Amino acid sequence: MSVTSRAAVNGPLRMRDFRLLLAGAAAAQFGAHVTLVALPLVAVLELDASAFQVGLLTAAETAAFLVIGLPAGAWVDRMRKVPLMIRADVVRAAAMASVPVAGVADVLTMAQLYAVAFVTGIATVFFDVAHQSFLPHLLPREHLVKGNGALETVRSSAQVTGPGLGGGLIQFLGAHLAVVANTVGYAASALCLWRIERSEPRPEPVPGASLRADVGEGLRFVLGRPLLRVIAAATGLGNFFTAVLMATQTVFLVRVLGLGPGAVGLALSAAAVGGLVGALAAGALAARWGQARIIWLSPLVTGPFASLWPLSERVGGAAVFALGSGVVFFGAVVYNVAQVSFRQVLCPPHLLGRMNATLRFLMWGTLPLGALAGGALADSFGARAALLCCAAGFLAVPLPLLFSTLRGMRDLPTGSDAAHATAPDSGAAEAAVTGAEAAVTGAEAGTDRRDRTTPLG
Question: What is the DSSP string of 143-190?
Fold first, then answer.
């Protein structure tokens, strides 16, 4: 029986390779969520960074989605995914290891933190695009929701345990030494991926193909499908305001609510419980309400709870802040499981890398903008004012979804309905593609077309 057949009969967790993929994700996510607390606290407590500098640190980590988001998809489609993910993990581990080394030598600066965040962000772009593109190769389509749900469960579990442990490590060791957990996590992830046995065919080079043409094909696919356009719009809006939260929550919890490092970690861990519950419930909710329906229903129901963030200064403190985050993260994880599985089914295999990278560019490219906006708002008007804007923004997230054909769907259409619902709208895509193709001409000049399986840069 083939690997795919075993998955269909037994489910993804019975597959050794999927378990290794899941274990690697657990190690990397656990370390990353320790650093979610540690890196901003290094800036705030050890380098006395301002709110804007903390926002700039968040922007540096996410700026890679704007800088290389589009060509990354074309490059990923030319490579085998597992070796690429291993190399990305090694780069991330090495970059993070430089922080405790510099901290111990007493030469750590904000400039180094910006550089580490940017390099880690570039490696993460390639890792995430390859990861999402590899999963449909590993699992049959009927198990994608279960597979994505398991990965979201791992991520949410890391959100629950990572920040709490990170706060404790910071309390006893100092913020810069706590970053070691992230280095170990990325190294463990690389080891798990190295042990995957699934045979992955080397992508065949296409004669006469170019990076610009490949990027254009991915853009045309995404921008030419109304369903993908509205998902990109809603997620991009949500990520913008999530970045406002990321840039201001540490400053708010430390300087407004007066929490110490351990309490900050516990507050963020408690908030992530909602994400874990969302990951565990996503499959059942999709079966009960429909995969398409919960894409718009989850942010509509949970988004208003973001108003508890600024309210926590006056009522309930850290407990109310954590409750708001827990409910919002519950909705966000349910939304993510549904929409990622939705678009993986929608896309042909040879375009998965470009589809995922194009959507990441459109959806995650708003993160550095939101981080800068959050830092600037907090510096000018205070962290609570920034969170008020953030809460108002979350109310707008479901609007693109509610005013689309997605609202009338229960699941991904099939047969003739699928052809109509997912048919390309070339007029809407062509103008955007022309400009974007020109934007990658410089990147194309550095491409070695003789070897389309080697990562660039």
Answer: GHHHHHHHHHHHHHHHHHHHHHHHHHHHHHH-HHHHTHHHHHHHHHHH
The rounded distance, in Å, linking the Cα atoms of 154 and 346 is 25
Counting every residue written for the chain, the total comes to: 457
How far does CA 159 lie from the centroid of its chain? Answer: 13
Divide the 457 residues of the chain into consecutive groups of 10 and give the mean pLDDT of each group: 43 84 85 74 84 85 80 80 92 92 90 91 85 81 78 72 70 77 89 86 65 80 88 93 90 90 76 79 87 91 95 91 91 88 76 78 86 91 94 94 87 50 48 41 34 28
Q: Which two tokens stand for residue 254?
A: 């430390």
Task: List, as one string, the DSSP characters of 333-375.
Answer: HHHHHHHHHHHHHHS-GGGHHHHHHHHHHHHHTHHHHHHHHHH
CA 446 to chain centre: 27
Give the rounded distance of the alpha carbon of 261 from its chain centre: 25
Distance in angstroms (rounded) separating the CA atoms of residues 429 and 206: 23
CB-CB contact of 165 with 181 (8 Å): yes
Q: How far apart are CA 396 and CA 303, in angstroms?
A: 9
Euclidean distance between CA atoms 370 and 66, whole angstroms: 13
Nearest-angstrom CA–CA distance, 436 and 439 = 5
Q: Which contiguous run of DSSP H or E holds residue 401? A: helix 399-402
Contact 181, 33 (CB under 8 A): no
- Three-class DSSP category at 201: coil
Q: What are phi and psi of 413, to 5 degrees?
A: -70, 160
The candidate with the shortest Cα–Cα distance to 373, out of 235, 251, 247, is: 247
pTM (2 decimals)?
0.67
Residue 429: its H or E element = helix 426-439
- Residue indicated by tokens 């607390």: 37
